[in-house]
Specification:
Blueprint lengths: L7 H6 L1 H36 L6 H54 L2 H6 L2 H43 L1 H8 L1 H39 L1 H6 L3 H54 L6 H41 L19 E9 L6 E10 L4 E6 L5 H8 L7 E6 L2 E2 L5 H6 L1 E4 L10 H6 L7 H10 L3 H6 L17 H13 L5 E5 L7 H14 L4 E6 L2 H4 L4 E6 L2 E6 L1 H6 L3 H14 L1
Parallel strand pairs: 3-8, 3-9, 6-7, 7-8
Antiparallel strand pairs: 1-2, 1-4, 4-5, 9-10
Helix pairs in contact: 2-3, 2-5, 2-10, 3-5, 5-6, 5-10, 6-9, 7-9, 7-10, 9-10, 14-16
The structure holds adenosine-5'-triphosphate.
Length: 585
Amino acid sequence: MKELRHLNKYFVKYKWSLLLGLVITVAARIFAVYVPQFIGDSTHVVEQYVNGEVTDLALVKKELLNNILIILGATLLSALFTFLMRQTFIVVSRRIEFDLKNEVYTQYQNLSINFYKKNRTGDLMNRISEDVSKVRMYVGPALMYSITTITLFVVVITYMIKTAPLLTLYTLVPLPFLSIAIYKISRTINKRSSVVQLYLSKLNTFTQESFSGISVIKSYGLENQVNEDFVSLSDSSKNKNLDLVRVQAFFFPLMVLLIGFSNLIVIYIGGNQVISGEIDNFGVIVEFLMYVNMLTWPVATVGFVANMVQQAEASQKRINEFLQQEPSIKNYNEGKTPIDGNIEFKNVNFTYEETNIEALKNISFKINSGETLAIIGKTGSGKSTLLELIARVYDATEGTITIDNVPIEKLNLNNLREAIGYVPQDAFLFSDSIANNIQFGKVDATREEIIEAAKNAYVHKNIIGFSKGYETVLGERGITLSGGQKQRVSIARAIIKSPEILLFDDCLSAVDTETEEIILNNLYRVAKNKTMIMVSHRVSTAKNADKIIVLEDGKIVQEGVHQDLMNQNGPYLDLYNKQLAEKEK
Ligand SMILES: Nc1ncnc2c1ncn2[C@@H]1O[C@H](COP(=O)(O)OP(=O)(O)OP(=O)(O)O)[C@@H](O)[C@H]1O
């Protein structure tokens, strides 16, 4: 139960509703117990009339009518309170589920990119959906069933003992067995359901991937192979489902068997006691038969509840693992730190923790606000990593990075991120309209600003070419943009923000060199008083930059302006010649 302690704060938050639920539950059970009592009493009245102990038929009818009215009233009240009980407990559990989901989601948003690289998306989704649902079973149904069972037990058993103590003892004997049996069966059911779920998600992933990759499957003629794989996976899934159905089929017959057994005990032992005179009327047997049936379901729920609590504990443990993680990138300054954009790296090293890859080695350079830096290098040379250090996606392993002469860690993290417009290598667009995708960079942007940004990113003409223009919805069931269009919408998103620092990670790789030239000219104009860093494979992107850095295997191997580097016999000139030759082919 240690892990579930995390939820106590929510119990405190909803204490009044829970207390009300408790009172309502007790009331519902007390009214429920009236029913067997008055049915027992009615049987006794009829028995007395049949035996000739009472001869006035009118009196018998009057008493029976009275009892019927009481039974009706008690049933109605018990039903009403049971309804209110569910309303209180289940509503509270839904509220706690909502709170917990928000808590987990907020934590996800706080955690650094590192966390997302270490954990699979499916895992993150499961914790917020499946695990939270299992925890809800503990704060809702499990709590409600426990309170119902305890109150019903106290109320019913008190009545039973008062009426016939020995018969009570015999009647209760099979009930713990019922509890244990239900516990075992529901445990097996849960285990097998998890396996079924696992296969379901395997099937989903398989189908989803085969739909996404349908063009590869078709062009390689792999349809039959993929079909066979699907059938085999589907067959395993079916077998797991059959395993589950088999054990589920046991559940109700077992319950009926054990209830029947308890009923037999009541009839046999109770009957003998009536014969021997220990119990003075048949009404008691009728009353007890009803009590046994009333107790069966709560007793069965003891098994259920034990299972629910176990599962909730396991789920909460998984949730806690994430909730207790500290973001690896922390904000050390809550004060305001306006940013101008003078960036300096001093002997910066960076090693990726997970792989131990030394992505940056002894990097030093300086770039002032209003200047443009181009970073050129082969794939894997550390270009993206360098940009990520400026956005504090990661902190440098060694050395210092300063912005406006302040170490980057001492800047308010929010101010830093606000001051940066970042276009990542693989442009990500949300399944939303193009306008909203651009507006993401500046929430309060006007339509004119959106169009202006799109024009500067040289994508406006493409957008108005779509029948719905800026309202064209992207993504699933929406239109898919070409790689180059995506990159340009992503650029528009960054420049609409008008940030002090613009970071472009190879974001013109999918456009031809002429379009690149137009966009670059626009970007130089937009970023006139800003700091702009452009990462590229292409020398053409770097040509007009105020400074060019050539990276190789994490190290700066050349530095200078285009003309200087062209005059040196180094990797920059090699790259230039290679790209020129490719262009002329
Ligand atoms: N998240 C990561 N975890 C571990 N290693 C990484 C990670 N990201 C990059 N690396 C490694 O760090 C090195 C530098 O990668 P980086 O992405 O910075 O190169 P790049 O120059 O931007 O390459 P490209 O032009 O292909 O994008 C590579 O060896 C890469 O495998």
